[in-house]
Amino acid sequence: MSSIAPTQPNPITHRLRVIWYILRTCISERLMYRADFALGTLFRFLPIVTTLFLWGAIFAVGTDHEETDIAGYSYRQMISYYLLAMLARAFSSMPGLASGIARQVRDGSIKKFLTQPIDMLSYLFWHRIAHKVVYYAVAAGPFALVFWLLRNYLPSWPGWTIFGAFLASLIMAFLIGFLIESLLGLISFWFLEVSSLLFIYMMFNYFLSGHMIPLDFLPPQILNVVQFFPFQYLAYVPPAIFLGKYTQPELIQLLLVEFAWIVALFVANRIAFKYGVRRYSAFGG
Q: What residues form the membrane-spanning segments (predicted)?
C-alpha cells in the first residue's frame, strides 16, 4: 500500500494567511480601546481651528485676505495647503513606532521575533497598516466634515494625472514615514536609550517636512539643503503636487527620487536589523 506524502502548503498562500492573521489581531487590539482611540483621534482636529485663525491674522495684516501673497501662496492656497498637509501627515506619521522598537530591545521582549518564524519588520509594517485602517475609519467622518466646511478654500479638480500622482505620493509618504521611524528604532541595538534622538528627529521633522509651514517659505540656501533629505515627502510634497507647484517633468523626477528613497531606506533597515541582531544581548523577561 503506497503512502501519500503530505502536501506542502503554498508559500504565497501561507504568507497571505499570516498577513491576514496579523491584520485581524492588530485591528482587534485597536478596537479593544476604541472609545479612547476615537476620542484621541477627534481631539487631533482641534488645532485646525487655531491654525486657521493664525493664518487668517497673518494674511490680514495691512490688506485684504484675497490680495495678500506670501511666498507664492494666497490665503485660499494656504488653507488648502494646510488641509492637504494634514491629510499627508495622517499617512506619514508613525506615533510610537521607533520608541516601541527601542522599548522591546531594552526590555528583551524583542526575543519573540528572534525565536519565532516571524519577521519583525514585516510584522511591524502590517501592524502599522492595521493602525492606519482603524485610524482612517474613525477619522474619515471628521476629515470629510472639515473638507466640506472649507470646500470654498480648496483648489479646483487638478485632473486625473495630478490626482494619481497625489495618491502615489501619499502611499509613498506612508512608506517613508514607516521606514525612517523603524530605522531610528533599530538604532537601539547600539544605543539602548534613543529618546533624545527621537526628540531631535521630531523637531526637525515638524519643521523640515513642511508640516509647520510650506517649504517655499524657507530661504533658498536652506531649501537647497532640505531637498537632499526625505523629510519633504512626509508633508510638503503631496499638497504641493495637488496645488500644481510642479511641472510634469519635475513631477516625474520627484516621484522617482521619492521611490529611490524608499528603496534606500528599506535596504538600510534590513542592514541595521541584520547587524543589530548579531550584537544583541537579551535583557529582561
A: 37-61, 81-102, 133-151, 157-180, 187-208, 251-273
Boundaries of every domain in the chain: 12-278
Contact present, 109 and 284 (Cβ < 8 Å): yes
Q: In this predicted model, what pLDDT tens digit does every residue of 126-137 receive, in sequence order? A: 888 888 887 787
> Cα–Cα distance between 192 and 102 in angstroms, integer?
7
pLDDT digits (tens, 9 = 90+) for 52-96: 777 777 777 655 555 567 778 888 888 899 989 988 998 999 988
H/E segment holding residue 160: helix 160-186
* Separation between Cα atoms, residue 162 and residue 168, nearest integer Å: 10
What long-range pairs does 218-221 form, CB within 8 A, spacing at least 24?
Answer: none
**Beta carbons of 137 and 221 less than 8 angstroms apart:** no
- Tally of CB atoms within 10 A around 82: 21
Cell of 185: 528604532
The C-alpha cell 485632473 sits at 159
Strand partners, 73: 70
Q: What is the spatial distance between Cα 99 and Cα 85, in angstroms, rounded to a whole number? A: 24
Q: What is the mean pLDDT of residues 228-256?
A: 93
